[in-house]
Amino acid sequence: MSNLLKRGFYILLLLFTVFFLVSCEASNVKTLHPSELFYIHDDDHILLNATQWTIFDYGVELYEDSKSNDIDFSIRGSQVVVVATYELESNLDSTTLFNEWGIGENDMGILIILFFTRDGEDSLVSNVLVEIGARMSTYLSAFEASNLMDTYFYDPLVPDFNYDLKLMQFYFKLLEKIYLDIYDYSSYNYDSFIDEYLYNQYEYFGSIPRSQTFEFTWETILWIILGIILFGFGGSLTYIFPLFIFKGLKSPFKGGGGKSFGYWFKR
Prior knowledge:
The chain is of the alpha/beta class. It folds into two domains: 2-29 and 213-245, no CATH class; 40-209 and 253-266, Diaminopimelate Epimerase, Chain A, domain 1, CATH 3.10.310.50. It contains eight helices and five strands, in the order H-E-H-E-H-E-E-H-H-H-H-H-E. Strands 1-2-3-4-5 form a five-stranded mixed beta sheet, sandwiched between helices. Helix 1 (2-27) runs antiparallel to helix 7.
């Protein structure tokens, strides 16, 4: 009888833990975790699919190119991360976000946050914030980045509703600055990248993984319930536990540990 009571207690404890974790996951809506792809965070799918994948592809390529043995070790590992969000600006601390995500190795990171508002079914850009890593700031000043934003993001020839193109013009110009002025890559061609993006702008390349957090799907909950039942009948959770605990928790794309000391501007 004593063993049965103990087993019943553990079952109730496990059920309580499951429901507690589910409720925490549902209420934790203001915390931004890096996406599974790291270089692009757009859980609300504000940006076009091609825009998201382009940022990811070129973000990975920049990081790999900047790790070349021909580059001085102290400036390797550049990462440019883009966040598109409806979150109020007061809810996000860009410096904390930058440092928690560890954008860029050797502090060679850039964080671009696009704040959007809703106007009926339309999305409007309210502000753009750029945070620059501690070492990156010695190569790219806020003043220079702000001028690039004026020219390429706020390009009067591009209509406001095409914020995807505005973003990509600014994004590719930042990459041009990094490739040409920091890493001395002579092959970078801004115009060719913009032309390629325009050609693919309205294509769909597949769904973008969401934020890098553990999500309780019905499949996961069923595994947990099954494990609790087996445990209740004297079974072991040893072989079931890893199936849902470690699923989706790790991503091959992550920050390099970079820091910012609060060097940012917003337009």
